[in-house]
Specification:
The protein has 402 residues and is of the alpha/beta class. It contains 13 helices and 13 strands. The protein has one domain: Luciferase-like domain (TIM Barrel), CATH 3.20.20. Strand 8, helix 7 and strand 9 form a beta-alpha-beta unit. InterPro entries: Luciferase-like_dom, Luciferase-like_sf, SsuD_RutA_monooxygenase.
Length: 402
């Protein structure tokens, strides 16, 4: 066996060391976020059209400058998390009148860049770890570097890729659903062992091998924050073992009234699985929030977005999703994608605050919010809704940035 280092541990998968989790450090950025009864996250519109397939005019933009402004705005309002979506699309994105998602900034690189212009908010880079020649050494080193750039405010939203056509862009074929999670589990275990940094690591597994591997410097709070998005048994099993934050979709479509009765059992699956392993996870969900001074104004705006649905883009989006093997979004309507989001929360500030309280009561620990016209709607949410969340005990007051 070759190698320049004098010592090495040749370990089996069962013996791979694990670092301390960031939530176990009282002063970690993750622990501060977890102290909030209801975490607030912003889903960044790093792609053309953001999250809504509608032609109604708005100012939402995919540019880095615009997303920098939004992230700093959210940070000043006390938001806890910001991250974006990862997709790999052909020329023209999903097409339609809007060329939906034609331009798409990489969410990992964007999050690293945002770390240099923020001070408090957690940033996560979404990444498909199974596409291309990724090796755990790459991600372990990249995340440790981003962790130091951000002073412990960085993490990865690890996804396995459900789409049928994405792997072929990398010269690959899509692996079977549960096999992808098995490979991701080994990937994450190796990263954890490298972050633990007990010794040079030699390991030969089912998917990856390393010889005398080491990563330094190690992350500030044990390891970077880890998140995953899933709705399947295999995905929930993975999340219960490795993730701090679990991003779920609605099990009953975008209407909140339909989702609320089913969410408690859905959320309990992953929380109970984590508890059985002596761990705690926080569960977040993505609502698109439409809030106006009155209920009538909010629903009129909602209907206007729906009336301008980009049907061509919606059709292409629906076809692509149906060809994949995702077990999320199964009950969502195609037309609802004009507004976007896993849930639609609509109403006056008081009504929106009440709906968020209902989500929290159903077991949701945080919301990853999307807006239609981001900048003014984020500002109004901060002005009109956050004070009501504080009054309801769902948010602890956060000092503005200075």
């Amino acid at each position: 066996m070759s190698g320049t280092s004098p010592s090495s541990n040749n370990l089996t998968k069962a013996l791979l060391p694990t670092p301390q989790e960031p939530q176990h450090f009282q002063d970690s950025p993750l622990s501060k976020a977890f102290a909030q009864p209801l975490m607030l996250g912003l889903f960044l519109p790093l792609q053309t059209g953001g999250w809504s397939q509608s032609t109604l005019p708005r100012g939402t933009d995919w540019s880095f400058e615009y997303n920098t402004q939004l992230t700093q705005q959210a940070e000043n309002l006390g938001f806890d998390i910001a991250f974006g979506l990862s997709q790999w699309l052909p020329k023209g994105g999903f097409g339609g009148e809007t060329h939906y998602r034609e331009n798409f900034l990489d969410p990992f690189i964007s999050a690293v860049a945002l770390a240099s212009v923020t001070k408090r908010i957690l940033l996560m880079g979404t990444i498909h770890v199974l596409y291309g020649p990724w090796h755990p050494m790459h991600l372990a080193k990249f995340l440790a570097t981003a962790d130091h750039i951000s002073n412990g405010r960085f993490g990865a939203n690890i996804v396995t890729g459900y789409a049928e056509n994405e792997p072929s862009m990398f010269g690959m074929t899509r692996a079977e659903h549960d096999r992808r999670y098995a490979q991701s589990a080994e990937f994450t275990q190796i990263c954890n062992a490298l972050w633990a940094g007990e010794d040079n690591l030699t390991y030969n597994g089912g998917f990856y091998s390393l010889e005398n591997a080491y990563v330094s410097p190690r992350p500030r709070y044990g390891r970077p924050v880890l998140a995953t998005a899933s709705g399947s048994p295999a995905g929930f099993d993975y999340a219960s073992r490795y993730s701090d934050i679990v991003f779920v979709s609605s099990p009953a479509g975008e209407k909140l009234a339909d989702a609320l009765p089913k969410l408690p059992a859905h959320v309990a699956k992953v929380k109970d699985a984590a508890a059985a392993r002596g761990r705690q996870v926080r569960v977040i969900i993505n609502p698109t929030i439409i809030v106006r001074p009155t209920r009538e104004e909010a629903f009129a705006y909602y209907q206007s977005i729906m009336d301008h649905a980009d049907l061509g883009a919606i059709r292409n989006f629906t076809d692509r999703h149906s060809a994949g093997d995702s077990q999320s979004w199964l009950e969502h309507s195609a037309r609802g994608r004009a507004v976007g989001g896993h849930l639609h929360i609509i109403g006056s500030p008081e009504e929106v605050a009440e709906q968020l309280q209902q989500l929290h009561a159903a077991g949701i620990d945080g919301i990853q919010i999307t807006f239609y016209d981001y900048e003014p709607e984020l500002a109004y949410f901060g002005e009109a809704v956050i004070p009501l969340l504080e009054q309801a005990g769902l948010r602890l007051p956060v000092s503005p940035m200075v």
